[in-house]
Write a structure and sequence with these properties.
By secondary structure, the protein is α/β, with parallel strands linked by helices. The protein contains 5 helices and 8 strands. Helices cover about 30% and strands about 20% of the residues.
Amino acid sequence: MNMRKQLVFVVLSLIAFGFAITSDANTYIVGDNSGWDISTNLDTWEQGKKFVVGDVLVFQYASTDSVCEVGQESFRTCNTTNVINCFSDGNTSIPLTSPGERYFFCGNRLYCYSGMKLDVIVERNQSDTTEAPLSSVPETESGGSKNNNPSTIVPSGVKSIYSESNLVLMGLLGFWGVLISIV
């Protein structure tokens, strides 16, 4: 009976490992090496990236800056008085928990006007079988498109996606734990 329990545990662990390996979620450092900064060309950084439910945006910035999540109209006009949430800790992680469009800008209105703003379209995660509402962001505003043309352009060289290697490491550690429990 004890061997049977161990076999069931191994099978379930391998199934969990398989799910971990096939996860589509990623962690993105906004602006890559340049970070969340007035000199970062966020349009260039965003190009070619596909954001899905489960991804995490990490904003790294100076203590004099901030990152605020806003609705579409506040984003379009850089309205810093109507924010959903604002952070100023210098290292902010924002999980993308549902599909829809999300809007972020620097709480310094002049920086926002200069292009320190980012809107991302979050798509449904293909590995997620549950139905989610279109957006977790309360949206009462309408219209607009962004103008994100900072005066200094810093190319975004290195892609900062860490979760795939972390998932493999977690899976290997879990598999190692299973092997130890059998022995």
